[in-house]
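Hey, can you fold this?
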Amino acid sequence: MFPAPAAGDPPIAVIVTTSGGLVAGDRLDIRVELAPGAAAHVTASAAGKVYRSTGRTTIIKQTLSTGPGAALEFLPPETILFDGARLQRETIIDLAPGSAFLGGDIVVFGRRARGERFASGFLHEGWEVRHDGELVWGDALHLEDDVDSIIRDSACFDGAAAFATMILAPPGRDPRRFLEGARAVVSGDVAGPVRAGVTAIAGLVIARWLAADAAPLRLAFADLACHLRGTALGLPPRLPRIWHT
């Protein structure tokens, strides 16, 4: 869908999963390409759901690329892993010189309101950021076998219900310029069930969250996204209306 953007916002593209969720064996190939100087905000119509699998794996490949001077936001809502789900997701971000990117995702371990945990299954979440075709940052998370023990381990997720990652590639500016403001935002949000950290590496700002409750994590994620789109991308410090429906 392509809803009308609010004043000051770039064009919006909304990915819709008409089935309401993904089942074992589903494969999605999502490609976003911005022409030189273009700007766009890409999101999804609702939280993604990956249902329990009897053996096959859901595979999602996301390829996001920008032309010189373009600015892309990729901020879908959370992905909910049902107990027994199997998901392999790879996101490749290829940035041309002078372009900008702000994006990330939230992953929720089970339907906690129903008393369900993501105790068994499979998750492989991989990120790659490339500048002009050259790999500058990569990250991969792999959960398999005794997933519940890994999530409960204090050296791993410490019993978290959800985690999130956000990536900012500011256009031609030192990412360290945005660290102090970003850390102030996440420190103001972090209370009780949410823990967060922000760092600068390889020309990027990387933010991470762990939360005992997915709802405050979603709010914290949105707060930082609003702050960074205002300070780094020169956009209104708000998210599109669909984020709040």
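Oh, and this one too while you're at it.
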Amino acid sequence: MSHDDVETLALELQSAYEVGKMVAVPPSERPDFDLNKAYEVEARLKEFREAGGHRAVGRKVGYANKAMWRVLKLETLVWAHMYDDTVHYSDNNLATLALPHARSLKVEPEIVFGLKEPVTGERSDAAGAFAFVDWLAIGFEIIDCPFPEWKFQPCDFIASFGLHAALVIGERMQVRPDLIAKLVDELPRFKVRVSKSGEFIEEGSGRNSLKSPALCLAELGAAIAKRFPAQPLGGGEIVSSGTLTAGHPTAKGDLWTVEVEGLSLPSLTLRLT
């Protein structure tokens, strides 16, 4: 796949994103498309969004599950950028969100980190990852798949904005040094309960994000540094660290709540309009 082919594909995916159009043929089904080309497309999409006046504010994680790595022949997780018009903060842990160009939405609860400095070096343990963290929160990631029947490969995920439609962030907990040991212990074990319009949907755990969201953050920092050593995961970035449950289909009018047990974070409620 040539540079011109990458440019053409990026323009196609950007156009589909802007108008809510499906993409009939995923990039993975096109000649010579792989993870390297996917990250080239992702970089061009970032340039397009920035040229349109939108700033990249963080990364979202995909495939934070080592069992999936073996199946899909991945060496590590994958990622894509999030932007200032797709990341939102709740008001008193309540949020209302409209997504006018949605195609096929799902909602996922995730731990969100705010970074205070660049994540450098090789993979660290959970305590080491917290050295880079300013705050954490519970969030709802809204994903939107442009491919028929939700069928895609990791390289398709990267090249289509990481399926990212929006992120809603709840109340933020400042990560003080005296809290780190407690958080390292709690993050693999805490639980979330997700409900839709008051009806229980699913329970999840921190273990579902690479055994701990902190370990997922460390893995992401190392993976970015290895692939793009001159562009590490930076201070000030927001990281959505992988879903804690299955993704659940959602649509306009749905009311979602995630309750947190075993971690000092309040519940978060999101209404789609």
